[in-house]
# Entry
Amino acid sequence: MRKIKNVEDALALFELCTIIHDECNKSGDYRKSNKALDDKRKVIKYLLENDSIQNLKVFYKSSNLFARLSAATYLAPIDNENCYRIVKEIMDMNEGWASFEAKYTLKEWTKVSSLEVYDKILSE
# Structure
């Protein structure tokens, strides 16, 4: 992954990595999917290190359900109620893979919404 220039660039990369991850999961290209996921975690680490993780909130209203779900998942430790609502809404939409991932995310909500998630990302 190329060097992240600034927060705006990080947000654009977050969206791109989310799209690639989703498309590759659907097509079965798990190697490329895992690379996109690794890159997305690097973006999250950048945002955390620059006290800018809250900027992911721009994706709360995204038309891309995976960007919305991913943003809500990464923001859950600091915006639990809104993120839970967003993930539940995606699950209730019955929109195939996105709803399936949302359902799984809710099953793991206690882990997802813990601040320890950020500590783990920052230690990578």
